[in-house]
Specification:
alpha/beta; Rossmann fold; 10-stranded mixed beta sheet; globular; disordered N terminus; binds alpha-D-glucopyranuronic acid
């Protein structure tokens, strides 16, 4: 009982009141409105959905609704991509890893993505991998002086703690990463002129239509293009790639995993509003908080749901259900109330019926676990003590989950 009380007080930690949080932010659980989530297993005609109907049409109905009302459509047009090996070092990380750097060059556009890959040397045969976008350029992922410095003036290795590269390598996993700004710059003035969007514009088009992709859609597309390359890269087993992301890039990992079923596992770290958290709880960050600063992450259609979350044709348990039956891990942090940890947990729980329909164990009737006590079935969830971040605690549990689902099956 005492443990539970302490845990509740920790969850209610008030230290996360930063200036960025608007005055109308709700952190009072008793003020969460009553809400009814859209049914996962009733289709648009109101018919109940079994396994055959899920695969037959329900899954694509949900995907389409998420495109229409949240992230926008991703263009299906293919662009020609050439991959150029820029550098390879088989003695990276004191001989424990091979570092490869590859440029993906798109058509004649001059458009380029720099892919950084580390593969453990001790693994015989293709290694399972984590793939995630980074916020601050490839050279911030580790202090390794061999990483090409491009884009930002950030210090080498300045975000190394978020990647735990040495641990990954030791545990037999490869890591692939790309800087999100190379796909679409995330500069708070985004006008869709300097990322990949122009590659897909029709004649005279200068911005995406209201139902077309924003930045999250573009970043997710970029992750799939890196996976295309991993499919031809012999040192990695592309059928065992976990897509991972933190915060806005956690939203992106979920959208990438929902659309591209080649991703064998999906990890969302503190993704919050527009990620794993249920919109209808209206707790912490809400759509109207995002529209002015970062509305470009979504399609413009999404903006009409400001203060009208209950009218959305979807909620985020539906996004998570699209990952089923693949392993899915959702992680929250106690001080990250802005991202609504309980809303993230509930979305994972309410996605469970689709896992169960497809013959896997979901979170079922589980209660939200205590801080630092992971819950792991085919869905993983933990509420880490601490701030909005990716830490060694998070990675410890992602790796245990990956060992169970990617390495042993
Ligand atoms: C802001 C934003 C969040 C986002 C986060 C991040 O806090 O409001 O939605 O997840 O930035 O990406 O760091």
């Amino acid at each position: 009982m005492l443990v539970r009380l302490v845990a509740i007080l920790v969850v209610m930690d008030v230290s996360f009141c930063t200036a960025k949080e608007p005055a109308d932010t709700n952190y009072d659980e008793s003020k969460v409105p009553e809400y009814e989530l859209p049914e996962l297993l009733l289709d648009h005609e109101g018919r109940s959905v079994g396994r055959a109907e899920w695969e037959g049409h329900r899954r694509s109905e949900i995907l389409q609704s998420l495109e229409d009302s949240v992230y926008g459509t991703t263009p299906s047009k293919k662009v020609n991509v050439r991959y150029e090996l820029v550098g390879e070092d088989r003695t990276a990380l004191a001989g424990r890893a091979t570092r490869k750097q590859v440029a993906a060059l798109f058509g004649e556009s001059g458009y380029r993505l720099d892919i950084l890959l580390y593969v453990p040397n001790r693994v015989s045969g293709p290694a399972p991998a984590f793939l995630g976008l980074n916020f601050n350029a490839n050279h911030t992922v580790h202090a390794d002086v061999g990483i090409l410095k491009r884009g930002t003036s950030n210090e080498r290795g300045s975000f190394a703690s978020r990647w735990q590269l040495e641990t990954l390598i030791e545990r037999g996993y490869a890591l692939a990463t790309v800087h999100r700004d190379q796909i679409d710059p995330d500069n708070y003035r985004n006008d869709f002129s300097d990322g990949i969007h122009p590659l897909f514009y029709e004649d005279n088009q200068v911005v995406p239509e209201s139902g077309q992709w924003g930045s999250i859609g573009a970043w997710a597309w970029g992750l799939s293009r890196v996976l295309d390359w991993l499919e031809i890269e012999a040192s990695v087993d592309a059928s065992r790639v976990a897509v991972i992301g933190h915060s806005r890039l956690g939203k992106t990992a979920l959208w990438a995993g929902a659309q591209d079923r080649r991703f064998a596992m999906v990890v969302s770290n503190n993704s919050g509003c527009g990620g794993a958290a249920l919109y209808r709880r209206c707790y912490g960050e809400r759509i109207h908080h995002m529209v002015k600063p970062v509305g470009y992450w979504f399609c413009r259609n999404h903006h009409q749901y400001q203060q009208r979350e209950h009218e959305l044709p979807v909620d985020q348990h539906m996004l998570l259900s699209l990952v089923a039956p693949r392993p899915l891990y959702i992680a929250s942090a106690t001080n990250d109330r802005w991202a609504d940890p309980r809303g993230e947990f509930l979305a994972a729980k309410y996605a469970s019926p689709v896992y169960e329909l497809l013959g896997e164990k979901g979170l079922g009737e589980s209660e939200m676990p205590l801080p630092n006590v992971p819950l792991q079935t085919r869905i993983g969830y933990h509420l880490r003590l601490g701030d909005h971040d990716v830490t060694s605690f998070d990675w410890k549990h992602y790796l245990a989950f990956a060992d169970r689902h990617l390495n042993s099956e």
